[in-house]
């Protein structure tokens, strides 16, 4: 399948609000490249995915250091990284990206942590393939680190392990105990310690800042196309294929029941068109997000994610896959019989087949090339 064919299929996904073929392809391409089961699976260095110690940062070059949680690695983060890259090039410095694992919110609000747009591994992968990043550093985020004054963090965790020339953060960034390390406070520290600080204005889309919270809100309402525009790619989640409920058995197509990694952000309940990415191939799929209740509207089980794959034959049980959400199809519903369920599910499959086809996309050939 060629680029023109893929673009025309993606264009067909939005008849009410068309997306230019190139833009549509770019949104899907971004997700497929970042997905760990896709074409970019081997791009980042292994040290980046494991988390590189700050002690390994080079002292031979001065460093422009971009710091953040970078949940989702969305368009706002990309703007910040682009600003940091330009600064590093202008100064002749290396660009070091510093992030945290786990996401700070999971330590600061452990009772009710916010769902993550990317797993830690996927976030590191997305940062590692960002243009111009010379070094990716992951700091374990612990209660002890959260209680560390920002001056000590900069001097002990950064300054003593790299030749710090410039720090680049979002204008609303804060660091250290009590969030005292604001952009203004960091600038005062930089005047003493010999580094500069750039606070990057939040990127704007549609008159509002691009933030991870805004993306989560859009996903929670099922507005995955709007979320994709802020992410710069379609939203995806990763997980392992497990044995499922069995309600699709006998419908004539394979169904992958995906055990999503804990803490990841699923979109609103409903049925979506998208792709399941496995072993370097993206298969068109009708994706169901919700709670088991096909025949019992008053009884709901644990949240699930299952995808009906088109054109696929084989066994995915136990495999790690990524599920890419491209377009909302319909809200969840209950059914009076198995035959009614089958009729609706086959209708979902037919719609996806018409829009995306039923051939798998070889990501190494169609997306990376």
UniProtKB/TrEMBL annotation:
Keyword Nucleotide-binding among record annotations: yes
One of the GO biological process terms: riboflavin biosynthetic process
Alphabetized UniProt keyword annotations: ATP-binding, FAD, Flavoprotein, FMN, Nucleotide-binding, Nucleotidyltransferase, Transferase
Organism domain of life: Bacteria
Annotated SUPFAM superfamilies: Nucleotidylyl transferase (SSF52374), Riboflavin kinase-like (SSF82114)
Metabolic or biological pathway, per its Swiss-Prot or TrEMBL entry: Cofactor biosynthesis; FAD biosynthesis; FAD from FMN: step 1/1
Reaction(s) the record says it catalyses: FMN + ATP + H(+) = FAD + diphosphate; riboflavin + ATP = FMN + ADP + H(+)
MF annotations from Gene Ontology: ATP binding; FMN adenylyltransferase activity; riboflavin kinase activity
Occurrences of domain Riboflavin kinase (ranges): 230-357
Keyword Nucleotide-binding part of the UniProt annotation: yes
Family per similarity comment: Belongs to the RibF family.
Protein's name according to its UniProt entry: Adenylyltransferase/cytidyltransferase family protein
Organism: Candidatus Olsenella pullistercoris
């Amino acid at each position: 399948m060629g680029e023109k064919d893929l673009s025309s299929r993606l264009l067909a996904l939005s008849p009410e609000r068309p997306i230019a073929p190139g833009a549509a392809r770019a949104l899907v391409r971004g997700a497929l490249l970042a997905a760990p089961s896709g074409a970019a699976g081997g791009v980042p260095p292994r040290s980046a995915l494991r988390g590189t110690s700050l002690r390994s940062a080079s002292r031979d070059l001065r460093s422009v250091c971009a710091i953040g949680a970078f949940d989702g690695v969305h368009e706002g983060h990309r703007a910040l990284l682009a600003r940091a890259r330009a600064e590093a090039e202008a100064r002749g410095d290396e660009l070091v990206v510093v992030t945290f694992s786990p996401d700070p919110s999971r330590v600061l609000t452990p009772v009710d942590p916010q769902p993550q747009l990317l797993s830690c591994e996927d976030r590191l992968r997305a940062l590692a393939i960002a243009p111009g990043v010379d070094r990716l550093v992951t700091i374990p985020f612990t209660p002890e680190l959260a209680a560390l004054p920002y001056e000590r963090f900069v001097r002990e965790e950064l300054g003593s392990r790299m030749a710090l020339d410039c720090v680049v953060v979002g204008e609303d960034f804060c660091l250290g105990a009590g969030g005292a390390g604001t952009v203004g406070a960091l600038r005062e520290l930089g005047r003493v310690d010999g580094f500069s600080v750039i606070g990057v204005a939040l990127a704007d889309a549609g008159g509002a800042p691009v933030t991870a919270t805004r993306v989560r809100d859009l996903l929670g309402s099922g507005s995955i196309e709007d979320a994709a525009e802020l992410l710069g790619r379609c939203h995806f989640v990763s997980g392992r294929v497990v044995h499922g409920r069995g309600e699709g058995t006998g419908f004539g197509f394979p169904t992958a029941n995906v055990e999503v990694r804990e803490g990841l952000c699923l979109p609103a309940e409903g049925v979506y068109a998208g792709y399941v990415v496995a072993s370097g191939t993206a298969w068109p799929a009708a994706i169901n997000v919700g709670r088991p209740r096909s025949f019992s509207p008053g009884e709901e089980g644990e949240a699930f994610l299952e995808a009906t794959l088109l054109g696929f034959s084989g066994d995915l049980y136990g495999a790690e896959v990524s599920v890419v959400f491209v377009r909302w199809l319909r809200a969840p519903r209950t059914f009076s019989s198995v035959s009614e369920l089958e009729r609706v599910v086959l209708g979902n499959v037919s719609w996806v087949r018409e829009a995306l086809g039923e051939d798998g996309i070889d990501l190494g050939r169609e997306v990376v090339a």
